[in-house]
Fold:
Amino acid sequence: MSSWIEEKELFEQRARLVGQAGDIIKKAHAEDRDLTNEENEQFERLHADADKYTERVNLGRKQREAENSIVGREDFDVEKSQPKQNRFERYLRYGNSVLSEAERYDMATDSTGAGKELVPEDYHTKLFEVLQDMTDVLSLGPEIIKTSNGRPYPVPRIDDSSNTGERLSGENESVTADGSSDPDTADLTLGHYIYSSKVIKLPLALVEDAAFGIQDKVINMGAVRVSKVLNVDLTTGAGSSQPQGYVTGASSSGVSSSSATAVTYTEILDLIHSLARPYRKGAKLVFNDTTLLAIKKLTDGDGNLLWFGGNPAAGMAPTIAGVEYGINVNMADMAAGAKPIVYGNFGLSYCVRLINNVQTFVFVEKYMDKLQRGYLTVVRADGGVVDSNGLVYFQNKNS
Structure:
């Protein structure tokens, strides 16, 4: 069977499954109801099966591409033809000793040199994907700037909130001093701070087992460790010798708190309306899971819950008083003087810089007495508030 015919059949089978999943949604919509648990499970199972057909197509294409790349090559060089992925994986399993002299030199050069050719591009891509998934602040929608080096990076701060336009009386109005006001401008200069996973030690027998997915494991463990410390700084960092956290740079909402350990329905409404209207589109409430549990129990004057669980099948996100929210494990618990809730537009108000040069170091001999191999992931990042008008915080009273 030719490859295109096989692909066509696979895509047809995938389309059939996707169509069946769509029928479930249509039926629920026609009956004006949510999906039942059984329908939800069936919907997810159909999409998972459909994804398998897509994966089979991709694998077939990848194999044909590899075969076509070597057909007819009389000067075929096995070493040179080795995918970057395999060469880098050898480095992760055995260190520099298994690399050629040229490859060791490449690994030692700056990422702007030949070393970047040895490290597969998808390594950086996967690591940043895990970092973004596991770092709560990055999931809130801030502006993320990726640069290739650590040179100071200026980000303009522009505050035009106090200025307005004007109505002109006519095209031939006489020229006079216009009395216009320029927006307040300044630069937030983002540098870079170094974040380390600390050394991750793995058993030698496991590392040298070909069935063990060393690259994915190192990526996940390194990124998760870095995300934990990075998230703290991007949340409450002082801005001196560390990134400025969004809580640190946010403005006071001015909401008068009635409790040192709780928040009320009316206080949440006051917090939402304390943010200037231009920032509310796309804004989110942010708090930790403990605070969310407390808010879930709040009701309005008619006994209606303030929290709405959303409807994923219909694309509706969970909300608090009609406002979407995000969870950040490093937000403070409600306590005397704490700032447990922030409301703001992170896309307009907070900026994170990530430097693409991710480094992974392999320690071959250092832990050999314990038959272990060590790995160290290093990420450089910075962050800061670019518009404090777009972020407001709720603060519990001191006592």
Q: What stands out?
A: DSSP finds 14 helices and 15 strands in the chain. The longest helix spans residues 37-70.
